[in-house]
Amino acid sequence: MRIAVIGTGYVGLVSGICYAELGHSVVCVDKDPDKLATLQAGGIPIYEPGLKELSAKGVAAGRLRYTGDLAEAVRDAELVVIAVGTPPLPSGEADLVYIDAAALEIADSLRAGAIVAVKSTVPVGTNERVQGLIRTRTTVPFDSVSLPEFLREGSAIRDTLEPDRVVIGAESREAAEKLASLHRPLTRNILITDLRSAELLKYASNAFLATKISLINEIANICEKVGADVSQVAEGMGLDRRIGPAFLQAGIGYGGSCFPKDTRALIQIAGHVAYDFKLLRSVVEVNREQRLNVVRKLETIFDGELRGKTVAVWGLSFKPNTDDVRESPALEIMRRLTEAGARVRAYDPVAMPNFRKLFGDEGVDWCDAAEEAASGADALCLLTEWEEFAREDLHKLQTILKRPILIDGRNLFKEEDLKGTSFVYYSIGRPSLN
Ligand code: NAD
């Protein structure tokens, strides 16, 4: 198939590269000249394991190329995939400005019989809106398909090449079948729905996962008060097949470019039809509070006085294996710490440059290694569970810190890891040690 992918963010880039890997002829389009220059020079503008190699393979095979010329890319395409951003407006609603602009641009060069698929996460009715916008500019026949994306940053290639399911929302059976054939090499689980159900299903899935996270975090908070251990509670819950073990890790809450944005957008979608989504409002509220758990623990340890303290922070991305810092809990935690007068020594294996752009330099020393960040600090807070932190020698670490205080916001360490050390260890929903 000849495919044009509009937008080379996490979703568009990974999808485009993977479609090329399947043998299709793919052109990826982006407006951002810096991203484009990186891609055309053989680089990858995001951190995603394995992506650079797969892109190089597609380019070398002549199946993949990158361009800034949308019209040229769309002119020949049998399938046009829209994968532009849908960032939140201050109200929480998804901003459709990039979707609308892409739709209008596509219209001017769309070939007859093409399929326009929206992969971006969009409010219910957006595919119909895209159709309407295209029809204001062209009379060529085309089909609209909603093709929601479920990949996770950090394992994006695997999630794309071996997805749990592919959802295709379509009005036309023929268009749905064409896209089903495109994705059949990846999975047997292909669900064909109507346009609106596909759009809502994406939000509903993220709302469910966010709910699971906030639920286990509230259970963790209760565990701390009643002297239970949330990792044991979660293990027992997860053995029930109706519940399952995924997304039951207590911690400082979810972040990233999807869950915070999509939960708030779904609350707005419900609000537009006069439905108060009470459960999801609570999920968002619990999550907002949960990240402050780390700050509260520090305040308790230091009798409410953080001024003049040095706090080491390990991990800035919203989860490991990504450089994405959008809505990362570390942003709010570090803001609170620096506002309270603490000095932060921060380290992350890949996300530091992105984090710095959002956070600025006020009150922070950026460090090149985990141990450098810990050096001389009054306490250490682990905010992202990068694998390299789990390998740290805690016996050595306790000698580097000024005081051996460790707040593990992701429950990365186990009791046996701490054995023989003098660490005062706090985690989330588990008994503190020493
Ligand atoms: P992103 O912001 O990383 O990338 C969007 C890209 O689109 C940017 O590079 C931008 O320059 C480009 N763009 C915007 N308008 C354009 C135009 N008219 N022509 C060409 N390029 C244009 O976004 P993302 O994280 O890839 O997310 C894209 C969508 O997918 C969002 O709706 C998001 O909610 C959804 N989604 C994201 C993830 C994820 O893990 N990031 C997962 C599932 C779904």
Automatic annotation (TrEMBL):
Keyword list, A-Z: NAD, Oxidoreductase
InterPro entries to which the protein is assigned, alphabetical: 6-PGluconate_DH-like_C_sf, NAD(P)-bd_dom_sf, UDP-Glc/GDP-Man, UDP-Glc/GDP-Man_DH_C, UDP-Glc/GDP-Man_DH_C_sf, UDP-Glc/GDP-Man_DH_dimer, UDP-Glc/GDP-Man_DH_N, UDPglc_DH_bac
Record: residues binding NAD(+): D30, K35, T86, T121, E153, K261, R326
Residue numbers binding substrate: F150, L151, R152, E153, K202, F247, L248, Q249, A250, G251, G255, K319
Residue numbers annotated as active site: C258
GO molecular function: NAD binding; UDP-glucose 6-dehydrogenase activity
The protein's Enzyme Commission number: 1.1.1.22
Gene Ontology biological process terms in this record: polysaccharide biosynthetic process; UDP-glucuronate biosynthetic process
Pathway named in the protein's UniProt entry: Nucleotide-sugar biosynthesis; UDP-alpha-D-glucuronate biosynthesis; UDP-alpha-D-glucuronate from UDP-alpha-D-glucose: step 1/1
UDP-glucose/GDP-mannose dehydrogenase C-terminal domain location: 312-415
Signal peptide range: none
Reactions catalysed according to its record: UDP-alpha-D-glucose + 2 NAD(+) + H2O = UDP-alpha-D-glucuronate + 2 NADH + 3 H(+)
NCBIfam families hit by this protein: NDP-sugDHase
Family in the record: Belongs to the UDP-glucose/GDP-mannose dehydrogenase family.
Protein name per the record: UDP-glucose 6-dehydrogenase
Organism annotation: Cohnella fermenti
Taxon lineage: Bacteria, Bacillati, Bacillota, Bacilli, Bacillales
